[in-house]
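Morning!

This is the sequence you dropped in the shared folder:
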Amino acid sequence: MSLRIVFAGTPEFARTALQHLIAAGFDIVLVLTQPDRPAGRGMKLQASPVKQLALEHGIPVAQPRGLRLDGKYPEDAAATREALRVARPDAMVVAAYGLILPQWTLDAARLGAFNIHASLLPRWRGAAPIHRAIEAGDTHTGVTIMQMDAGLDTGDMLLVEQLPIGADDTTGSLHDKLAALGGRLMVEALELAACGGLKPVPQPAEGLTYAAKVDKAEAAIDWSLPAQQIARRVRAFDPAPGAFTRLDGEVLKVWRCRVDDGAQAGPASPGAVLAADAQGIAVACGQGVLRLLQLQRAGGKRLEAADFLRGFGAMAHRRFET
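The structure's back. Tokens below.
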């Protein structure tokens, strides 16, 4: 049985899922994605990665600004409801769409709406599960395929697969692994749905955490924190928004670092530079020492510490600030 699928998604994570569904031969009858947004240096309108892929394959695209019939854009919601009625989907697949789906959209498909969520639910419900898993020091994460309901990531679990978080994983690298896993699992879930083989399981009551959206202000490095915690935040905020600090008033991004095991800051205050050479810039933290390995000046490129120091001057007696 070939299911008729409506796909709702916007960024690269969702594009990967859609690519898997297309490759598996599902009949994608409609794609919902966010409206084109200004992007790049020229701030020209740019289609989402999902829209670009859909158009390459000749799939109809709708870009409502909102889906609430009583909301700010009722005409968009009404047009989308009509498009869904005409599409007659068997299932809706949702991956990082970016709009809240009201109940009428969840009911539009015969089998309901299936969501790809990048965590092991109920841990890290919400907007930024990949960032928060790395920031918290989790050793594992994964993907949950969930039957959507009206709550925030509260629906029954359909498929779950675990993935280790590597010691050097950033949000960027982990995102790509989870996107591929999510696409594969969704194909499996839809194949099971086609033959009535899905077995929904309620989420456990224990272990619930929320992954709040990342605010740019969080990426400011607080040198009074333990080195281990700062290192996790640097990885969590790569590639966006990018952990940053200040040196003599200049904003610098820190992209790669490591904890200097066994090193002691002594009487130095947090943020003080302890040493700077080709091996990196050693900085005192609230607890322990962090060695900065890759940095970036405003408007410049990411540079390894040795190259960064050649263009920045002596570091002795200097201090990084939040």
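Headline: The CA atoms of residues 28 and 224 lie 51 Å apart.

More detail when I'm at my desk.
O.
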